[in-house]
Specification:
Structural class: alpha/beta
Shape: globular
Bound molecules: nicotinamide-adenine-dinucleotide, ligand LNCXM5UN, zinc ion
CATH superfamily of the largest domain: Dehydroquinate synthase-like - alpha domain
CATH architecture of the largest domain: Up-down Bundle
Number of helices: 14
Largest sheet: 7 strands, mixed
Length: 369
């Protein structure tokens, strides 16, 4: 078994991402080294725990486990409170280690618990979805949702180690694989046209979990994420490129509620297509590139607009109002990631809300005001 290691270079907060088949058992010594003499605890997605607990327990030995229900609803204040009380009852101190075992939901929740437990304890990510393996386990964005919007309560807090065992993906449902693929695609669209070109031919292999294709997709995504995070840990500049499609996507998710009608990756897929269409509407991106993005999403069986997704809804006004809550906004100005073409994106706060509203009103599937 060959493992690949990508380092996230953040000075004293630097850490490795270890990627490959069998990565979990191969990193056992590193994990126990991080745990040291402190008290560890596992925070696991309930479904993942049922499927894969033996793989993790074989590495950690007997460790307290706190499970949370599967799904976005677990990124809530209620779930955060329950998990924090359980961690305190398990006697974790600052030298304790929280091991997140699940997709992005568990990673974001467990990371926020780690950031705030006694003002910070150790944290290790063991992501189990494609989305979490290519994106959410890396970079230290941790959060829960609020009634006001997605990820509005959180912290930047880096893990000590990310263990990406691609064997864990074998049980992932197809819809979740596709949702994760949206974030893979993001890395091509935001800055790597060659990678996008490869994805146009390799997407079937990735979705069928061909080991070489999956590993290349994960490694390429993690390298680019590690590069952007190392350059701008707290999203003061270039890191915002990782938010391509998210201002639209988070609004679509929020409007659908967090009950699983629209998955994060599905919102991002629609949001990226919207960002390209809006860039074309502004005369900044050739329509040919936008057409290529839409065509690829359709080939991969993913939505490119609200009309393609039965759970996506909302009026232009409602979506714009959610976008107004976005954390990137400064001084009340909307900030968007737009495109000059595939692999060439930029961050702008030069957004006219009236113009954006007219654009949204013409989007396929948007509800009448
Ligand atoms: N922090 C970040 O940088 C970042 C980046 C991207 C997304 N996110 C967040 O991540 C979340 C989405 O993550 P997600 O797509 O992983 O969703 P998720 O965590 O809800 O997992 C998706 C589903 O797959 C199931 N599952 C997980 N692993 C499995 C496995 N190996 N086999 C079978 N089933 C499995 C889960 O039970 C769940 O039902 C969103 O909340 C999003 O905001 C965060
Ligand atoms: O790591 C980042 O930076 C990202 O933006 C990655 C996104 O895929 C992820 O969904 C993130 O949680 C969104 O961040 P937010 O700041 O818009 O909540
Ligand atoms: Zn995302």
């Amino acid at each position: 078994m060959t493992l690949t290691t990508v380092n996230v270079a953040l000075g004293p907060r630097s850490y490795d991402i270890v990627i490959g088949t069998g990565a979990l058992s191969a990193t056992a010594e590193r994990l126990t080294g991080i745990i040291g003499k402190g008290q560890p605890a596992i925070i696991a997605d309930e479904k993942v725990w049922g499927l894969h607990k033996d793989a993790l327990l074989a590495v950690t030995g007997d460790v307290p486990v706190i499970t949370v229900p599967s799904g976005e609803a677990s990124k809530s204040f209620a779930s955060y409170e329950r998990v924090m009380e359980a961690l305190l009852a398990a006697d974790l101190g600052r030298d304790g280690t929280i091991i997140a075992f699940g997709g992005g939901v568990v990673g974001d929740l467990a990371g926020f618990c780690a950031a705030t437990l006694k003002r910070g304890c150790q944290f290790v990510q063991v992501p189990t979805t494609l989305l979490a393996q290519v994106d959410s386990s890396v970079g230290g964005k941790t959060a829960i949702n609020s009634a006001a919007g997605k990820n509005l309560v959180g912290a930047f807090y880096q893990p000590k180690l990310v263990i990406i065992d691609t064997d864990l993906l074998k049980t992932l449902p197809e819809r979740e694989l596709k949702a994760g693929y949206a974030e893979v695609l993001k890395y091509g669209l935001l800055g790597d046209e060659v990678f996008f070109g490869w994805l146009e031919t390799a997407y079937k292999d990735i979705l069928e979990l061909d080991p070489l294709a999956v590993t290349r997709a994960i490694e390429t995504s993690c390298r680019e994420k590690a590069r952007l995070v190392a350059a701008d840990e707290q999203e003061a500049s270039v890191r915002a490129l990782l938010n391509l499609g998210h201002t639209f996507g988070h609004a679509i998710e929020a409007e659908a509620g967090y009950g699983g009608d629209v998955l994060h990756g599905e919102g991002v897929a629609i949001g990226m297509a919207m960002a390209f269409r809006y860039s074309t509407a502004l005369g900044r991106c050739p329509g040919q590139d936008t057409g290529r993005v839409e065509a690829h999403l359709k080939s991969a069986g993913m939505p490119a607009s609200l009309a393609d997704h039965p759970g996506a809804k909302g009026t232009a006004e409602a979506l714009l109002s959610w976008m107004g809550q976005d954390k990137k906004n400064v001084g009340g100005r909307l900030k968007l990631i737009l495109a000059r073409g595939i692999g060439d994106t930029y961050i702008t706060d030069d957004v006219d809300p009236d113009h954006l509203l007219s654009f949204l009103k013409q989007e396929p599937g948007i509800q009448p005001s």
